What we know:
Order of helices and strands: HEEEEEEEEEEHHH
Number of strands: 10
Number of helices: 4
Number of domains: 2
Bound molecules: 2-acetamido-2-deoxy-beta-D-glucopyranose
Largest sheet: 5 strands, antiparallel
Mean pLDDT: 92
CATH class of the largest domain: Mainly Beta
CATH superfamily of the largest domain: Jelly Rolls
Distance between the termini: 64 Å
Oligomer: single chain
Radius of gyration: 20 Å
Strand content: 25-35%
Low-confidence stretches: none
Helix content: 10-25%
CATH architecture of the largest domain: Sandwich
Amino acid sequence: MAAVFALFLVAFATVLGSSAADPDMLQDICVADLTAAVKVNGFVRKDAANATAEDFFFTGLAKPGLTNNTFGSMATLANVGKIPGLNTLGVSLARIDFAPGGINPLHTHPRATEIVYVLEGELDVGFITTANKLIRKTIKQGEVFVFPKGLVHFQNNNEKSPASMIAAFNSQLQGRVDIALTLFAATPEVLDNVLTKTFQVGTKQVDKIKSNLAPKA
Ligand SMILES: *[C@@H]1O[C@H](CO)[C@@H](O)[C@H](O)[C@H]1NC(C)=O
Ligand SMILES: *[C@@H]1O[C@H](CO)[C@@H](O)[C@H](O)[C@H]1NC(C)=O
């Protein structure tokens, strides 16, 4: 019995170990052919002989993203969609800029843990565990914070000056589920009676949130 249990533990640890990030690659490089029509888990790769330095290069994080939007923040992604050479490598970056008072609203990354480094300013950040415990801290320039894979989190700039951070992910394509938009701005709409029962409020309150979050025409 003990032997069976030990075997189970080893098998479980192996599964955990192999799913800690994107799957391992099987060759030196695997540059994504972003235009290929074939669908695979990840991206089809182009001929290795055709790879160039441009496939591994991106300038998009050099400048602040535009923060003149509803939430006063902008996440600029440097993942496989921008850097085809990241295909199968299991890592990516982003830069997040915040206007004074801006927020990167409650969201999760289904495929990655996130570790951030504050470039400028001061941010109130936090995540919520599956035990419903809020882990929260104010972080400033030069400091680092971690958001575990899949957990709901936020970064909020309560200051009168802008802020920015670099985020790293253990996935080539971390994915993002925006809590408010997922629930109140999906297409087609999540039915009102699903939301009224979920939030224990009336249709009026649900419709108010839906209209606030609807894309501005
Ligand atoms: C590699 O580049 C050559 C020259 O541009 C092109 O003819 C060929 O189709 C490319 N191969 C692949 C697999 O993309
Ligand atoms: C944000 O600012 C940019 C550059 O100043 C401008 O082109 C853009 O239209 C603005 N967007 C909004 C939603 O105001």
